[in-house]
Each structure stands twice: as C-alpha cells, then as structure tokens.
Automatic annotation (TrEMBL):
Top-rank taxon: Bacteria
Source taxonomy: Bacteria, Pseudomonadati, Pseudomonadota, Betaproteobacteria, Burkholderiales
Name of the protein: Uncharacterized protein
Length: 108
C-alpha cells in the first residue's frame, strides 16, 4: 500500500516565507525647496518600516534619495509610497520590491 502525503498550500508558502526576506527600495527625486530628510524619516517611522540603507545624492539643485526598508509587506510599501508622494506633489517616488534568499534560514 502506498501512502501519499500532500502538503497544503499554506505550509508550502510558509516554508518559502522562512527562506526569503523582502525589502523595498524607494527612489525619491526632490527639489531643494521640497521636504527635508527629517520629514521623510518621520513618515518612514510612522509606517513601522525598518530603514536598512539610506543614500542621498545631490545633483545640481535636486536631491535623490534611495531608501531601502525592510519589515513591511508589499501592500504597506504601496501605502508608504503614497504617503511619501503626498508630502509634496512634486516629489517623484518609485519603489522596487525585492525578494532576497536567506541562505541561513534555508539550511535549517
């Protein structure tokens, strides 16, 4: 007699969730008269996002922020993008959703 064990979709998904982590990188383009980094930081803190990396470049009279955050899902990242955009109508925000393989978790 052969017994076949099938895993539920939820079990498979949770196994994958344990092997990967998601981060989001927000790319913002601001003019020199637009919100300062402090306003951006308070908006990020309100979202409960963990700031992993923040790079600010100045090009002429504009600032380019590249902010990588973790600890939030895709829906929360979209909500955060809208919140950052609403600080000023001239802010341009693009977000990248990235999935990272966690080799330490996979080997357990």
């Amino acid at each position: 007699m052969t017994t076949q064990t099938s895993l539920s979709h939820d079990t498979c998904t949770s196994d994958l969730d344990n092997q990967f982590r998601m981060t989001h990188t927000f790319h913002l383009h601001l003019g020199s008269s637009q919100p300062a980094a402090g306003q951006l930081e308070s908006t990020l803190k309100e979202s409960n996002a963990r700031i992993d990396k923040w790079l600010i470049l100045r090009r002429g009279g504009n600032y380019e922020h590249s902010i990588t955050v973790g600890g939030i899902g895709e829906a929360a990242a979209r909500t955060l993008r809208k919140a950052l955009s609403s600080l000023n109508n001239e802010i341009k925000v693009h977000v990248e959703h990235m999935l990272h393989f966690d080799s330490a978790a996979a080997s357990r």
